[in-house]
Design goal:
- By secondary structure, this protein is of the alpha+beta class.
- It folds into two domains: 4-209 and 258-289, Anthranilate synthase (4-Layer Sandwich); 211-255, no CATH class.
- It contains seven helices and 14 strands.
- It has helices at 4-12, 31-38, 94-103, 129-132, 181-197, 223-238, 259-269, and strands spanning 18-24, 44-48, 59-63, 68-73, 76-81, 84-90, 119-124, 150-155, 157-162, 167-174, 218-219, 251-252, 274-279, 284-289.
- Strand 9 (157-162) and strand 10 (167-174) form a beta hairpin.
- The protein is globular, with a radius of gyration of 22 Å.
- The model has no long low-confidence stretch (mean pLDDT 89).
Length: 297
């Protein structure tokens, strides 16, 4: 979709990341099948709309493997590139660091594509409240899982489905400051198109057919501990300290299937306008929602 002249014009406007886009035939593809062909590994994601419309869930976005990953544990920032740690440092304000990363990316708006055509993708954990209100920070030594408070993939290669128009776009970011960047992006699009069209044996069957029972799950709460937490929550409400509380519990169970198979099962059981699968190698996030909590445009 991009011409060299358009690329040069966008570079002249001062953009640091320019999406180079190609539309490909997609009548035999789904967002999930494209994810399995082009991504299906660490530092990838799938944002899918199984049910939607013109306003809600119009686009499904597949993030191909990101080379660069930013992880914040407390006030420690770790940067990995191609799986190797390239930087570790202490930061005073993680949110300011994230804003600096975002501001360093100047990307042109492209007609006919979603507002997001690449950039930072990941999560902000509940523990981030400690960056805003230190009194609410988790006590030292309470990080049982060791997951980052903030994790962001620098997503520069994507596949985007327009579910309304039935079109698929492959997107590769090019740095206009690099000589030959446009031609390199076109070559990468050639490779992705060939990979997408290559015949394959299909995705393997799930690793296990075991059926889990509710009794197999282990809760991080005892029954007595949960009842006590409910009583203390009532006391906080009466004292005026809080007006709403959600008592959550972590459930654990031995697991042998591939994480993407969990997403496939959720997709079949609970299709929704907003489904997501995020794979960062040592952990995965799977979910589905009927609505977006917050959107800023």
């Amino acid at each position: 979709m991009n011409s060299l002249a358009q690329f040069q014009q966008q570079a002249a406007e001062g953009h640091t990341h320019i999406p180079v886009v190609r539309e490909v035939l997609s009548d035999l593809d789904t967002p999930l099948s494209v994810y399995l062909k082009l991504a299906d590994g660490p530092n990838t994601y799938l944002f899918e709309s199984v049910e939607g419309g013109e306003r809600f869930g119009r686009y499904s976005i597949i993030g191909l493997p990101a080379r660069r990953v930013y992880a914040f544990h407390g006030h420690t920032l770790t940067v990995r590139e191609d799986g190797q740690v390239v930087e570790t440092r202490e930061v005073a304000d993680p949110f300011a660091e994230v804003e600096a990363l975002r501001s360093a990316h100047s990307v042109p708006k492209l007609d006919g594509l979603p507002g997001f055509t690449g950039g930072l993708v990941g999560w902000f954990g509940f523990e981030c409240i400690g960056y805003i209100e230190p009194r609410l920070a988790p006590p030292a030594g309470r990080d049982e899982l060791g997951t980052p408070d903030i994790l962001l993939l620098d997503s520069n290669e994507l596949a985007v489905f327009d579910n309304l128009k039935g079109r698929l776009y492959l997107i590769v970011h090019a740095d206009p400051r690099v000589e030959g960047a446009f031609d390199q992006a076109q070559a990468r699009l050639d490779a992705l198109t060939a990979k997408l069209r290559a015949p394959g044996a299909g995705y393997p069957a799930p690793l296990t057919s075991d059926v889990l029972d509710e009794s197999d799950f282990i809760s991080g709460f005892t029954r007595e501990g949960f009842v006590d937490a409910v009583q203390r929550s009532k006391e906080y409400i009466r004292a005026g300290d809080i007006f709403q509380v959600v008592l959550s519990q972590r459930l654990s169970v031995p697991f042998k299937a591939r994480p993407v198979d969990v997403y496939r099962a959720l997709r079949a059981l609970n299709p929704s306008p907003y489904m997501y699968f995020l794979d960062v190698g040592d952990l995965q996030v799977v979910g589905s929602s009927p609505e977006i909590l917050v959107r800023l445009q």
